[in-house]
């Protein structure tokens, strides 16, 4: 009878692994202990050995899929036996129906891993280690409300610490600083233990990509200060025509301006491919959006050709989906240039890391009222700084500076953005 | 410090103690003219003479019985058993006489006796010559049981054993004689009944001793590549057992794997695990795992023998299971 190879647990935080590559194809022989596939865990790419000898009859997940530990990933059997997935997986009562349902499509080797994963029932999750019980009691935590991530769902120290680390209450934002001053006292003594908060997978992915980008891409940075009195005025006029739900943000104007400007600078709307620079036909501007556990780049396709109102609406809808965790692939796929805007947080200016395979990213600061000197007279003005980070393998400082200069024409003559 | 093999370290300890104290003498099968089955006492016969390096008949009960008599009379015998497996032929003398005389006669006599015995598997010597029955001997109060895993500890512990006024069973592992390590010259004493941290770490406490220390060190080095930092506690003495470093380490890591070469049932791992549960229950964050020999008489066939003995990969797997 055929055997099922499951996604192994290879590290202490590992809840799922991404199957990066199948080393043995369907129909190939494999001996117990030989490498069957490569999986990527949170830490590294690891080889999965086959626990059985025989012929690889089925691959239950496609390369690139993330699979919970314990889920079936392949079927090893003899060359000619009839594979009945439901029968092989019979012991796991919860798993069997899901596998039977998936069986007709098994030959296509494409069913979703979620259909196969056997969710542990809540009743199995009551176990807690003695240490976890003690720490929970000391912290006054109800163990029933702590999610266990140890073997078999056991609640361990890590889980209690994570639960305890969660914020209990937050002071209201913007409250008067004098309203509730804490008593002026300091009692020496232990401040409690350090709390380890597991990184989300999104945060880990960002970490990997940004580390790679910062290490491998030769970044350089050019900063320009824009006069935005006209932009702010035009925006105010335009918004007077629009309902609350349709208001245009400063960022919407910026995305439009950047998109039009990129049409003139195809070399910055580009990716590096070996010895060539691919200048993209479409101008798809990504906007970095903060979401739970990290950030995502929401893409506005063909931003140079879309009217500003449409561009703003599409961006707003995609951002809302991203914040609700319901992002669609099309919302995030294929940006050719990114705008990262921290203007709403009183940031003078900052520099961003390029999001590969893009060639550049624009970091935008706040609109600030500053003293400006013109023709020997100092007066008040509105200014906004933006810094372009660019990949030196693709472009250089002069082109970057010209781009920022050209961008000024759009930003400082904003009526053009409405046409 | 100089780099010595385990064999040289043990030999040096014996030599130095015999030079220091004329009451110390050696007896055993082939220890004299032949220089010892494992060549530990090579050259001793010519230097110290037949009075102090005594070849005995092939009769373990006679060796241990005679050594007990000599110890009771004021000498400090070091009796060698060619293998620990032959100790079973002298069991009555070891556990009923040596371990109990001091207690049963109100402390009237001391028993400064050392029994050196070679144990362990891995050399294809068959089921009756390859055992690791350390736990059996550590079971009996009245006997000290020592099992070093490094050349320096072997020298220091053997010198302490010879100077001890109680009977000490000194266990050497047949596959460790070639193990090299730094050994302090001259007066180097390691106290009996003291465990030691052999590798610091923060993630898992790995408790082991003797041959399995070497295997555990390899496993720990492998795990370190994955970022798992194993803390190794070397028991060194099985009785009296020093749980201090084990418990200190466990209270830090909250996870433990115990590695022994002998069988799991009623073994060293069972004892250590029970003590941890008794004394550090509120620090337990995962079930304690034991790595031990498969529960079969050790096969002669090389492949089967290695399959039955605990391997590096078994230790790595056990560590992953507790993480």
Walk me through this protein's architecture.
The complex is a heterodimer of chains A (419) and B (323). Chain A contains eleven helices and 16 strands. Chain A has helices spanning 85-88, 95-102, 113-116, 130-139, 157-165, 201-216, 229-240, 250-264, 308-323, 329-332, 397-412; strands spanning 3-6, 16-22, 29-30, 35-40, 45-49, 54-59, 66-68, 72-77, 219-227, 270-273, 276-279, 285-291, 294-300, 337-341, 360-374, 377-391. Chain A is globular, with a radius of gyration of 27 Å. The relative contact order of chain A is 0.09. Mean pLDDT of chain A is 81; it is low at 90-125 and 167-175. The longest helix of chain B has 15 residues, at 6-20. In chain B, the strands form three sheets. Chain B has a seven-stranded mixed beta sheet with strand order 3-2-4-5-7-6-12, sandwiched between helices. Chain B has a five-stranded mixed beta sheet with strand order 9-11-10-13-14, with helices on both faces. A two-stranded antiparallel ribbon of chain B has the order 1-8. The model of chain B has no long low-confidence stretch (mean pLDDT 96). Chain B is built from twelve helices and 14 strands. The A-B interface holds A 9-12, 43-44, 129-134, 150-151, 154, 156-157 and B 226-228, 254, 281-286, 320-321, 323.
């Amino acid at each position: 009878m055929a055997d099922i190879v499951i996604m192994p647990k290879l590290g202490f935080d590992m809840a799922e692994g991404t199957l990066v590559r199948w080393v043995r194809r369907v129909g190939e022989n494999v001996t117990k202990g030989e490498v069957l596939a490569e999986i990527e865990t949170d830490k590294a790419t690891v080889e999965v050995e086959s626990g059985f000898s025989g012929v690889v009859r089925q691959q239950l997940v496609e390369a690139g899929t993330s699979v919970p530990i314990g889920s079936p990933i392949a079927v090893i059997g003899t060359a000619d036996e009839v594979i009945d997935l439901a029968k092989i997986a019979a012991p796991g009562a919860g798993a069997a129906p899901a596998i039977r349902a998936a069986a007709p499509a098994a030959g296509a080797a494409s069913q979703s891993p979620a259909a196969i994963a056997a969710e542990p029932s809540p009743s199995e999750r009551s176990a807690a280690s003695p240490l976890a019980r003690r720490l929970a009691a000391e912290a006054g935590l109800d163990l029933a409300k702590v999610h266990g991530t140890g073997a078999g769902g056991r609640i361990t120290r890590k889980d209690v610490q994570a639960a305890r680390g969660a914020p209990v209450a937050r002071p209201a934002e913007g409250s008067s600083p004098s309203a509730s001053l804490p008593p002026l006292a300091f009692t020496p003594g232990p401040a409690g233990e350090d709390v380890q908060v597991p990184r989300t997978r999104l945060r880990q992915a960002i970490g990997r990509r940004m580390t790679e980008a910062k290490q491998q891409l030769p970044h350089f940075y050019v900063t320009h200060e824009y006069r935005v009195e006209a932009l702010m005025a035009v925006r105010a006029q335009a918004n007077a025509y629009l309902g609350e739900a349709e208001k245009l943000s400063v960022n919407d104007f910026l995305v439009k301006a950047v998109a039009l400007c990129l049409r003139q600078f195809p070399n910055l709307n580009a990716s590096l491919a070996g010895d060539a620079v691919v200048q993209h036909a479409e101008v798809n501007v990504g906007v970095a959006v903060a979401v739970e556990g990290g950030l995502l780049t929401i893409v506005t396709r063909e931003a140079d050709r879309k009217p500003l109102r449409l561009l703003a609406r599409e961006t707003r809808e995609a951002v809302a989906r991203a914040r609700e965790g319901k992002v669609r692939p099309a919302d995030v796929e294929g940006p050719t240039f990114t705008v990262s805007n921290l203007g709403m947080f009183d940031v003078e200016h900052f520099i961003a890391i390029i999001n590969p395979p893009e060639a550049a990213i624009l970091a935008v600061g706040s609109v600030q009222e500053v003293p400006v000197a013109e023709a020997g007279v100092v007066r008040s003005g509105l200014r906004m700084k933006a810094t372009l980070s660019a990949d030196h393998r693709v472009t250089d400082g002069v082109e970057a500076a010209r781009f920022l200069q050209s961008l000024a024409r759009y930003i400082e003559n904003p009526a053009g953005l409405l046409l | 410090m100089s780099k010595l093999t385990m064999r040289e370290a043990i030999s040096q300890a014996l030599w130095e103690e015999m030079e220091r104290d004329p009451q110390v003498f050696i007896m055993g099968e082939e220890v004299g003219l032949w220089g010892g089955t494992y060549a530990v006492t090579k050259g001793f016969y010519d230097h110290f003479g037949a009075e102090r390096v005594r070849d005995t008949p092939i009769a373990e009960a006679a060796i241990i019985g005679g050594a007990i008599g000599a110890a009771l009379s004021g000498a400090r015998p070091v009796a060698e058993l060619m293998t620990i497996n032959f100790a079973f032929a002298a069991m009555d003398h070891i556990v009923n006489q040596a371990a109990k005389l001091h207690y049963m006669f109100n402390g009237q006599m001391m028993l400064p006796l050392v029994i050196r015995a070679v144990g362990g598997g891995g050399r294809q010597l068959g089921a009756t010559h390859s055992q690791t029955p350390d736990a059996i001997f550590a079971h009996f109060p009245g006997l000290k049981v020592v099992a070093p895993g490094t050349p320096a500890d072997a020298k220091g512990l053997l010198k302490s054993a010879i100077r001890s006024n109680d009977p000490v069973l000194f266990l050497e592992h047949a596959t460790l004689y070639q193990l090299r390590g730094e050994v302090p010259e001259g007066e180097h004493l390691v106290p009996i009944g003291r465990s030691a941290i052999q590798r610091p770490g923060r993630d898992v406490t790995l408790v082991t001793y003797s041959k399995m220390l070497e295997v555990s060190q390899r496993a720990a080095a492998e795990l370190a590549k994955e970022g798992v930092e194993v803390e190794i506690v070397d028991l060194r003495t099985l009785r009296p057992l020093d749980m201090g470093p084990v418990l200190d380490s466990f209270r830090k890591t909250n996870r433990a794997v115990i590695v022994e070469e002998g069988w799991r049932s009623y073994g060293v791992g069972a004892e250590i695990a029970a003590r941890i549960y008794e004394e550090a229950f509120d620090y337990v964050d995962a079930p304690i795992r034991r790595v031990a020999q498969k529960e079969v008489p050790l096969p002669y066939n090389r492949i089967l023998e290695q399959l039955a003995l605990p391997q590096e990969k078994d230790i790595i797997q056990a560590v992953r299971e507790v993480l």
